[in-house]
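re: ur question from yesterday

yeah so i grabbed the chain u mentioned. its 590 aa long if i counted rite. heres the sequnce exactly as i have it in my notes:
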Amino acid sequence: MNRFGWTLFVVSVVVSGMTHAVGAESESVKQLDQLFADSWEFGLSEDPLFATQIGDNRANDKLPRETLADHQRRSEADRKLLSRLEAIPRDQLPRARQVDYDIFKRLKRDAISEHEFQSNLTPITNRSGYHLSFPELSLEVPLTTVKDYENYVARLRAFGQYSDDHIELMREGIKRGVTLPSVVLADFDKSVTPQIVEDPTQSLLYKPLAKLPDSFSDADRARLISSGKAAIADSVVPGYRRLLEFMTREYLPACREQIGASALPKGREFYRYRVQHFTTLDIDPEQVHETGLAEVKRIKAEMMDVIKQVKFQGDFPAFVRFLRSDPQFYAESPEQLLKETSLVLKRMDGELPKLFKTLPRTPYGIREIPSFVAPRTTTAYYMPPAGDGSRAGFYYVNTYDLKSRPLFEIEALSLHEAVPGHHIQIALQQELTGLPTFRLFAHATAFVEGWGLYSERLGLEVGFYEDPYRNFGRLSYEMWRACRLVVDTGMHYLGWTRQQAIQFMADNTALTLHNITAEVDRYISWPGQATAYKMGELKIRTLRKTAEDQLGSKFDVREFHDAVLAGGAIPLDVLEENVKAYIAKTQNAE
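ran it thru and got these structure tokens back, copy pasting raw so excuse formatting
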């Protein structure tokens, strides 16, 4: 029945009527579960890489197909699944299953919209795409048995076709006027040419073949090494070479000069959709822009208070120049940066029970961002664990250009990307029980990134940011996310130039100019995504204040966090319902 409970029935209820209602509910639930199962199985079959990531090993020898026909077929399948969903009477479902219904409906509608707006025709960006992820394939797949290595080599052999599929999409994008802005593809070749090697043993993809398990027979070792070299030489290297040639001769000359999504076909409509998609809110770009400006003003005042606290003699720009140039704020080696990061996280590990009743079983680790992508990507990112618990989550730290990685930012950044941020939330989500499988891996960006930003502030509650410079780093990171609301909407909807966006962030944050430029180019190539962080965090903070105000002495931050995280990554309206239910339950408890 409904998880919030039924009101008492009057004695005159007709028993046969109750039986009919329960039967209808049961049949609707059965149809819904079958629909979810069919959709999930279809998704696994279409994306073998995702299947491997979550522990389904049936297609570990395959890569996805990404042709125009494949994308059209998947979109048609989404439409059929949506039609099946809408044929199920939602009002006959228990409340918890109505939530499943609504989230699934949102996911399918958004997938259909993405295809209608032709976003599949820009499958790569300056910091993401198959060309960047594939060299790290060995970190994402099982490599224990002979069969595992055979599967790995089979995927190397499939890479040539995989690359050609993506080229087909981008070539069609040229025809339809759907391309990336040229500015974000500067130095694109530097992430591709390292994969074009004359000697297969020099490829990053050869690494696992160079250290095969001792338990393998000599015959198996020789066969795997030989077939692996051939796959790299005959498929991987030619695939990257064709990509480089296509990008140089066809794609880059055809790229648009305008940076905003509004320059795309139906661009303004597309951007309005993207804002609502990433924030999960019924909101328009102008509202997001104004919210950003208000947050910039508020945070700026707090930053000025820190400047006064350290008794700095100078204005805000002078203080930022001091932070960007003084050697005391920068690591002297990658090892020092990684050690500082590790210390912060180990300290937070010990404080987690003060903030959470429920913690994930899956651990996390730290890795350096690979050198071939580090110059063109952000300061850090998180990669989720395998869904079956066979691989930990990993926090990737950028050690390139140490003068762009100030130590005073480490606390905020690490709390966001690892614990109590992304790792706690995502690992817990994958370990939830009683939910449809698709919800264990759903990604509502406003929730995921909103939680990450909210987690930065949690450090204040358990003894972090005691050094005023590190607190300034926290505020600068919060300011960074507020600025995102302004510059993303500014560039994609309000006609801002790239330089306007860079200058706005330089004027209001302590981020280095290298990081600012990399971030602005990221927003250019990924319209709308940057609006999710601050909008999600504001919603979580608002809900927490509501809970604190209404519960008073009954408020327990650990219970609140359980209520927020217990449903996985969910749209913000669903989160609000969950928090309201938690408040009501707590108020009614003796």
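noticed a couple things. The beta strands are 364-368, 380-383, 393-397. also The radius of gyration is 25 Å.
anyway ttyl
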